[in-house]
Amino acid sequence: MGLLVDGKWQDKWYDTDKTGGEFKRTTTTFRDWITPDGSPGPDGRKAVPAEAGRYHLYVSLACPWAHRTLITRKLKKLDDVISLSVVDYHMGEEGWVFSDRPGAIPDDVLGKQRLYEVYLEAEPTYTGRVTVPVLWDKQQDTIVNNESAEIIRILNTGFSAFADNAVDVTPQEHLAEIDRINAVVYDAVNNGVYKCGFATTQAAYEKPFAALFETLDMLEERLSGQRYLVPSKAPTEADWRLFTTLIRFDAVYYGHFKCNQRRIADYPAIDAYMREALPVARHGRDGEFRAHQGPLLHQPQDHQPDRHRAARAEARPRHAAWAGERALRGLRPCVISHPARRSAAPDGPAAVPPHRRASARSPAAPAPPIPSAPAP
Ligand SMILES: N[C@@H](CCC(=O)N[C@@H](CS)C(=O)NCC(=O)O)C(=O)O
């Protein structure tokens, strides 16, 4: 893992020395838009026109931010309109790289070996992190946008001449509420797990840890009363943005990022929402692994246990080294508390959440309010 500085690759971890041990996500820099006819995007943002075959998406299947863009591309039926590369699952000292290992799709647009070379093609003196997802313009040889929150809006609205317009993940009547929920979920959950995982002091870890579980508690209450995060007929962007973190939570964030007060499996309504309300969840809950193989994703099509076994074996020393470093710095995991294990609820931890019981099919009680948070 590293970054580019004036166009030169440097193999460096996140620097938390200047931030009191807190992980601070840097803002992404390529922020242009795609509109149906090339007219400016939101807030007059420079835009290029939607065209079939002109744009390419670079993703990692491990990445929750990239996962949102894959889901939206699939929901909008844009697979044949926007081509795709998937980086190798292993991020090493050269950052994301391309390979022909199972699950990866090489860079057949630019023929690069490393993702940072794609960034350099767009901007030879680029300084910053080299992240996925990246939306590439094959005509102008540049990155249109590398901010997942914006790429999903572009895919939802920019390609109306090619997309399935029956699907709209940001329906106008719910947009304000979607934006409000996104801000809360981004700060405390999507980015919250990273703030826990990449903190290098105890205090910097404990604060987002508390906010994460307070927010999950609040989402549990809300999802006990309604099917989706906003009272819509179908899942919206707010649901998909939460989903890509939920599906990785028990498998990855609970242990690896020490987000270990509760698992998603300990939240009956969130768990049911993840499993039932969203089609991809039907494939089980071994998180990252299945998420990558669900029907909303491009590939791989087949179960490939060997690939995952190899990836885990390869990752183990890194995880161990990381845990060792944490111990050296004197960090200890927050209290592990499993309410579901400590005292089983009257109808058991796997109980059907209230709104899914037969008796609750009549109009649901209004969902509890979600407090506002500053936009990311
Ligand atoms: N703000 C970006 C964040 C994307 C991001 O952090 N992606 C991670 C993978 S999950 C990445 O590529 N990290 C590489 C790095 O930070 O060096 C977005 O949402 O698109």
Can you tag this structure with a few keywords?
binds glutathione; Glutathione S-transferase Yfyf (Class Pi), Chain A, domain 2; 11 helices; single chain; Glutaredoxin; 37% helix; 376 residues
Major beta sheet, strand line-up: 6-5-8-9
Helix/strand-derived category reads alpha/beta
Major beta sheet summary: 4 strands, mixed
Number of domains: 2
H-E string: EEEEEHEHEEEHHHHHHHHH
Q: What Rg do the Cα atoms give?
A: 21 Å
Class of the largest domain in CATH?
Mainly Alpha
- What is the CATH-assigned architecture of the largest domain? Up-down Bundle
Regions with little confidence, pLDDT below 50 for 5+ residues:
281-308, 318-329, 335-364
User: Cα distance, first to last residue?
Assistant: 23 Å
Bound molecules: glutathione
Strand content: 5-15%
Which range best describes the helical content: under 10%, 10-25%, 25-40%, 40-55%, 55-70% or over 70%?
Answer: 25-40%
Description:
The protein has 376 residues and is α/β, with parallel strands linked by helices. It has 2 domains: 3-157, 3-Layer(aba) Sandwich (Glutaredoxin), CATH 3.40.30.10; 172-360, Glutathione S-transferase Yfyf (Class Pi), Chain A, domain 2. It is 37% helix and 9% strand. The protein contains 11 helices and 9 strands. The strands form 3 sheets. The chain has a 4-stranded mixed sheet with strand order 6-5-8-9, sandwiched between helices. A 3-stranded antiparallel sheet has the order 2-1-7, with no helix packed on it. A two-stranded parallel sheet has the order 3-4. Strand 8 (134-137) and strand 9 form a beta hairpin. Helix 1 (64-75) runs parallel beside helix 3 (148-157). The longest helix is centred in the middle third of the chain and has 24 residues, at 202-225. It is globular and about 50 Å long. The model is unreliable at 281-308, 318-329 and 335-364 (pLDDT under 50). The structure holds glutathione. The site of glutathione has 14 residues, from helix 3.
